[in-house]
Amino acid sequence: METIPKPSKETKEDSIDDIENELLLPGLPNHLAQICLSFLSPALLFSVCHAWRRLLYSHSFPPFFSLYVLVSPPPNRKVDQVDAINSIQFLSLDPFSSKWQSLPSPPKDPPLHLLHRHPSFLSRNLSIQSLTVSNHLVLMAGTTCRFVPALSMPLLFHPESNYWFFGPPFTIPRRWCATGSVGGTIYLASGVASHYSGDLYMVNVKGNAVKDGCVYNVDANLWENMPKGMLAGWNGPAVPMDEEVIYVVDEVKGALSEYDSERDCWKKVIELPELKMAEQIAAGRGRVCVVCGNGEKIVVVDVMATPARVWVVEPPPGQQVVSVHILPRMSKRA
Fold this sequence. Notes:
Protein name: F-box domain-containing protein
Order of helices and strands: EHHHEHEEEEEEEEEEHEEEEEEEEE
Oligomer: single chain
Helix content: under 10%
Structural class: mainly beta
Distance between the termini: 38 Å
InterPro entries: Kelch-typ_b-propeller
C-alpha cells in the first residue's frame, strides 16, 4: 500500500505559458518538440526539467487528469453559523506536485447553501448528488440547513475554462435522490422535494440489506428488473467506468469487484481492509477512487495493472471527503 507523497518544496508554476524562448528538444523547433513530448507520460514531463514542466501546465498542452473533491469539516470540529450554512468546499489535487488547490467560488446569485452535516442533526450525513459528465463537474442536489432542496437548477464547473455556470431549472427541485449519466445526458431519479412523503420509493439501500433492483433502459424509456447476479453483488457504492463496465465496493468486506454482464456475476478485483466502510466511488482513466473511513482517506486502485496497484490519498488537513471525481486539471488563472 502506497501513500501519495506530500510536497517537500515549492514548485515554480509561474510563467507557465512563457515557453517560446526555451528550447524543449535540441535541434527541433518547439512546435515539433511539443508533438514529440506529447507521447510521454505527464509524470515524466513533470520530473525531467523545468522547461518540460512548464510545457505540461501550459494551455497549448493536453490537460492531465486530477482528483476533484467535495470536502466538509469533521463532526468534532466546532463551526459558527456561517460555516454551518456553507460547509462544503471544492478542491482539486495536482497528482504531480501533490498540492491541493481551491476551485473558484461558485456564483453568488443564487447563493449556494449546501450542507453535509447539520449542527443539530447529528445522526445522519446529508447526501450531496454530484457527478462528472463530458469533463464537467455537475452538482445536482443537496440539502440546506432548513432541510429543503439546495439547488433549483444544476450547477456545473468546467475545469479547462475554470468557470462555474448554471443549467436549466428543475421542474421539481429535490434532495436524497440518485443521479447518473449516459451519453452526456444526466438522469435524476427518486428523491424528496420540499415536502416529505412516506409513500415515496428510495433508490439506494446501503450494504447487504434486502433490496429490489431496477435498471433504466434509456433507449426504450422503461424501467426493467435488475439481473439477479448484479443485484446479489450490489453491496455498496457502485460506479461505471467509461460507460462500459461497473465497479462496486462491498462496504462490509472491503472487496472491489467488476461486473461481468455476459455471465451476470461480479469478479473480485481486490479485497483490502482499507476499502471497508466505503462511502462513495468514482472511476476513470483506468483508476477507481474510493472514499473510505468517514471521508478520512481516498483509496485509489489502478485496475489496469496486474496485480492491481493501490495507494492512499490523504484529504486536505482538517477536512473530510464527501465525494471524489476525476476530471482534467484546472486551467491556470490569468
